[in-house]
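pinging the channel bc i need a second pair of eyes. not urgent but kinda urgent?? the chain im working w is below, pasted from the shared doc
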Amino acid sequence: YGLSKNLSCKISIDRIGKLVLDYADHAGIYNFSLIVHSMSGLIGHHLGITSPNRIKSLCFFCPVPPNGFQATKGDIEKMHFVAQDRPSVRQAILDRGGYVENKEWVDKKENIAWTASTPETKQAYLDMFLAPVSPSPQKSSFQKVFILCGDIDLPFYRKSSLEREFSPFYENFELIALQNCGHYPMLQNPKLVAQALKNYLE
């Protein structure tokens, strides 16, 4: 992504987790709050387990839960097609709550989704995301966990589903559903998200 878009590396939960810690080390930051979105929920849970001394608090946005996506064969085929086909990217955005936004917003989000990373990176990230989580995720001892979701996202990412999926791994977490938001609340209602984060981190 960004200036690193053309750099290649092995895409795995361990590898991306290490990149996060390497970046923090480079910036001279030892303890930090970690905010993750969607597929990166797997990374957030992993770092909370493997590096609890580094993470002050965890905040999940519309996350994939610790035990993964549990994708069917049909899900896998559909999502791999999305990584290769721009009209399918647009439809995926609409399906995940983008339908409440205007055309200009959807155009901009589609452009971000399509150009921010290479097709090869999208494919590799999906392979990681859709694979069974191995080894099986552990229960976390974290006491400060915040989950934000959109109330018009896909059912898998809504409040009732996330409560069920996160409960086996976290004894205490705060979960808030943002009204009229889908899978991209930080783009759909940035002021509401900023206030929710401010309240939590304080």
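so The chain has a mean pLDDT of 89. and Residues 13-26 form the longest helix (14 residues). — does that match what u expected or am i reading it wrong
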